[in-house]
Automatic annotation (TrEMBL):
Residues 14-65 form the Transposase IS66 central domain. The lineage of its organism: Bacteria, Pseudomonadati, Pseudomonadota, Alphaproteobacteria, Rhodobacterales. Pfam families: DDE_Tnp_IS66 (PF03050). This is Transposase IS66 family protein. It comes from Primorskyibacter sedentarius. InterPro entries: IS_Transposase, Transposase_IS66_central. PANTHER family: BLL1675 PROTEIN (PTHR35528:SF3).
Amino acid sequence: MPIAAELSRLKGYRFTCEVVAYAVWAKHRFALSTADVEDLLAERGVTVSRETLRDWVNRFGRNFADCIKLDRPTAAGQGIWTKSSFRSTT
């Protein structure tokens, strides 16, 4: 999980940048709700409110979404069949 360079703005927050980065990354990577992310962090011993998570996602989410999109492979050249490249021999 890459930590975006924009997270240097986290100075003065209660939680470390790793906690914020993980929460925002998990929300965007797996399309989780804030309640799901809250439960995920609670299992790891971090108590965060849904409002705080929503604030983090609104503030830092765009950077993570862009990083995740860059990391995903593209469909072109991956052996995906398209309608124009498929010919029936019947």
